[in-house]
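Teaching note: in complex prediction, the entire set of molecules is handled at once rather than each chain in isolation. The prompt given to students was simply: 'Predict the structure of this complex.' The entities are:
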Amino acid sequence: QVQLQQSGPGLVKPSETLSLTCTVSGDSLNGKYWSWVRQPPGKGLEWIGYIYGSERTNYNPSLENRVTISADTSKNQVSLKLRSVTAADTAVYYCARENQLGRTAKLYFDSWAQGTLVTVFS
Amino acid sequence: EIVLTQSPATLSLSPGERATLSCRASQSVSNYLAWYQQKPGQAPRLLIYDASNRATGVPARFSGSGIGTDFTLTIRSLEPEDFAIYYCQQRFTWPPITFGQGTRLEIK
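The expected output is the structure of the full assembly:
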């Protein structure tokens, strides 16, 4: 059974870089999509981007000029970096696995980490 | 970008009643739609995929329907643990993958 465990600081200063890591156990990064999703306090879910395996990435156009998602297959970890943060980036950040489900093998978020509240605070 | 609009924003019902939640897409997503349940302080949980298929371990009282632009999540007889926020999500056209703004299901 896959487990996703997040780590990283809960406080970041404005204009600095938010960095979070998601350690995966029970599955390999290879051949899977690993996403980051965030949720501002009291609001809905926003997809940030994904990495496929360890190389191919795709980002939300609203964030792509500030975000980098990378992977370390030796540690089975996926990382998120969000640069030049402001108060608007305060949110709970989740990493999640997309898995192929059903006869047509479409992709859905079937496993999620516990989430990390990151507050941008000076 | 495909916008998903959920209604109502809040639904107040009693245990045992039937809940009907709606999700409308700004353009067709075929059946590439999922529903998630989120309880306070928890990550979302996949309930329904491909618009109508229950994920592993999801009780039979949850059902999904729809295709194209109009989708419905039905909870047949509400249990106390069903009161939560529900989100729909599409991946038919991306980036970005998008979510609806959520429907809060609260106890009346």
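Point out the following to students. Chain A has a mean pLDDT of 96. Chain A is about 0% helix and 55% strand.
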